[in-house]
Structure formats: structure tokens, C-alpha cells
Specification:
Strand content: 15-25%
Mean pLDDT: 96
Low-confidence stretches: none
Largest sheet: 7 strands, parallel
Structural class: alpha/beta
Helix content: 40-55%
Number of helices: 11
Strand order of the largest sheet: 3-2-1-4-5-6-11
Distance between the termini: 38 Å
Number of strands: 13
Shape: globular
Length: about 350
């Protein structure tokens, strides 16, 4: 614990879903944390939730990570960082298909600004929030870190591929820089305290918030996009990872770089469970563990969706010493507890 005591991590985009959970796990592991976020897709209440869980104030700067001057002045010039975690990106696949320029501008600009300031202020370590979307639809499953990246199925996925390439080239050019890209599969759930969780603005783009909002009566019914895929029940297969397990992976990645245990200056790890679960299975399990119905209908396939993908997590297990621990039923209970908390149910 004590070795992390004076280490400070910038969590860029840290008021969002994964950022808040990661901030909690970093603080619990002894790190100091500064959260920077423009609140375009998050809420200050999420930062308050982090403070409630850890029992102390957490420095927060409202700033757009695409505004390099503001980021320099308000964040990098005011705090000394050992590491940065980059979450400052839009993440809805469907929206990215409709608005590609919005995604290219935000997701790439925010990364370029952060990397430029890391170079300027000699900050040596970055963890990048990447995604299984970089694999497209892999020819063989499970996807390993060596699985060739296919043409991404969406502009969102393309921004993750491009960001990985930008980081790899930047690390090659800056001798003091190290990076770890974590390729997430499908993060779901909420903190067991029900004080933080996924807080989508408007209509949820992700499956579990749509399930919980439907169960809470906010949405009339859930649309399951496609039941004619080449999968056991015809619905898409995914690898659903508990958000707290995912948050712990970021702490382990920061530890690895801070403690000088990286074997390469740029490393990639899959973060998932390695167990495929279909959309319909997830809906049924949610109903079963929470004892609430989720009205749903089958809708046409959605552009940008991959038929099936799940992770090989062998490398993360052996090299990072990380593995997914939370039970899927517990994850879905936590998601429902969070929904009830924010709705006052």
C-alpha cells in the first residue's frame, strides 16, 4: 500500500461509468486521484458518489480534454502526475455510425492533447481504455491479444484502433513513456454500495441500463436486435465483465508500470471473463436473480453490431495477475440495486 502513497493518477473522463469505479479502486489501493471531465456524458453526482464511497474529497476539474490550453492550465500545471488513465471518449456504437465526425474529433483530439501534455510535463505512464471492437468480427474465437484486428464495424471501433496506433507510435518516439492498452469486452453492473453505476443521458445505448430502465417501468420494452444470428439462441454473444473487476484491472496496469514490471514499453491486455453469454440469456438471468419481469421484443439487427465475441483472458491472468471474480448474477443484482437507488424505488 505505502509504495503508492504519493503517486498521483489523472483520470481523464473520470466522471463517467468506468472512470468513477476506477477512481474508487485506485484510491482504495493507496493512489491519489485527480478526475478531469467535461461532464458532457456524465454528472457531478457521480463524483460525489466516489467521495461517499472513499470517505474523502476527490479533486475534480471540469475541463474538456480536447482543449489543450485549459487542460495544461487547469490540470497538468496544477498537479504532478505519475500516470494517466484515458477514458475521455464517446462510446455509443450506433451514434458513431450516425455521427462519425463527432467521434473522430472527440476521441482522437482528447488523446492527442493528453499525450502532448504528458510529453511536455514528463508524465511517464498511460493506461488507455480500448475495446474489443478493435477485433471487428474475429475469424476465430476466443479473441486473444494476437488476434488480427479486422476493419472495425463502427467509427467508434475505428477510433479505438487509431488511438492504439497513435499511442504505439508515440511510445516509440518518447523514451520515457510506457503504455498499456486494456481491450474491454462488455462492462456491466455497478458498485456494490449502489452509490455509483452507469448513468446514461437520454435513451441508453448499452444493454444493461436499458434492461434496468425497462424493469423500472421507464422504458416500455427492451428491443433485442436480431434473433437470427448464428448463435445458440439467435441473439448476439458477448463477454460481460463486471465494472468493479474492470476497474481493478486499471489499478493492476498502473501498478505494473509504476513498479517497473512492464516487459515492453507498449503492452495490450484483453479484459473480459472468457465466457460468452447471449443477450437473451442475460435478460433471463436478470429476471431470475432480481425477480422482476423485463418486457422485450425482437427487433431487426442493428448496424455496427458484431455477431459474437468473447475474450481469451490468459495473458491478463498470467502477466497482470488479474482475473474476473464477480459472479454474473451478483453483477446483475448490483445493476438493479443501482437503478432502484437513482429512481428512489
Amino acid at each position: 500500500m505505502s509504495s503508492n502513497k504519493n503517486k498521483t493518477v489523472l483520470v481523464a473522463g473520470g466522471a463517467g461509468y468506468i472512470g468513477t469505479h476506477t477512481a474508487v479502486e485506485l484510491i482504495n489501493a493507496g493512489y491519489n486521484v485527480v478526475i478531469a471531465d467535461n461532464l458532457s456524458n456524465s454528472d457531478l453526482s457521480a463524483v460525489k458518489g466516489v467521495e461517499q464511497i472513499v470517505g474523502r474529497p476527490v479533486p475534480f476539474v471540469q475541463v474538456d480534454c480536447c482543449d489543450i490550453d485549459a487542460l495544461r492550465r487547469e490540470v497538468f500545471a496544477r498537479y504532478a502526475f505519475d500516470s494517466v488513465i484515458h477514458f475521455a471518449a464517446y462510446k455509443a456504437v450506433g451514434e458513431s455510425v450516425a455521427e462519425p465526425l463527432k467521434y473522430f474529433r472527440n476521441n482522437l483530439d482528447s488523446l492527442l492533447c493528453v499525450l502532448s501534455l504528458m510529453k511536455e510535463f514528463d508524465v511517464p505512464n498511460i493506461v488507455f481504455s480500448s475495446s474489443a471492437t478493435v477485433y471487428g468480427q474475429p475469424e476465430t474465437l476466443p479473441a486473444t491479444e494476437q488476434t488480427p484486428r479486422q476493419r472495425a464495424n463502427s467509427p467508434y471501433g475505428l477510433t479505438k484502433q487509431m488511438s492504439e496506433d497513435i499511442i504505439q507510435d508515440t511510445v516509440a518516439a518518447i523514451p520515457f513513456l510506457k503504455a498499456i492498452a486494456l481491450r474491454y469486452f462488455n462492462p456491466i453492473g455497478a458498485h456494490p454500495s449502489a452509490l455509483i453505476g452507469e448513468l446514461p443521458k437520454g435513451v441508453p445505448a448499452n444493454l444493461v441500463p436499458f434492461i434496468t430502465q425497462t424493469a423500472a417501468g421507464i422504458r416500455k420494452e427492451l428491443s433485442v436486435f436480431g434473433d437470427d444470428y448464428d448463435t445458440p439462441d439467435g441473439s448476439c454473444l458477448r463477454d460481460y465483465i463486471d465494472v468493479v473487476d474492470l476497474a481493478r484491472a486499471h489499478v493492476v496496469a498502473v501498478d505494473r508500470m509504476v513498479q517497473g514490471r512492464s516487459t515492453e514499453r507498449y503492452e495490450i491486455f484483453n479484459i473480459g471473463t472468457g465466457k460468452p453469454v447471449s443477450v437473451l440469456e442475460l435478460v433471463r438471468l436478470f429476471e431470475q436473480v432480481n425477480g422482476v419481469p423485463v418486457p422485450h421484443k425482437i427487433a431487426p439487427r442493428r448496424p455496427g453490431d458484431v455477431e459474437k465475441i468473447w475474450a481469451s483472458t490468459d495473458l491478463a491472468n498470467s502477466e497482470l495477475g488479474w482475473r474476473a471474480e464477480r459472479d454474473l448474477g451478483d453483477t446483475l443484482r448490483a445493476a438493479w440495486a443501482w437503478e432502484k437507488h437513482i429512481r428512489g424505488l
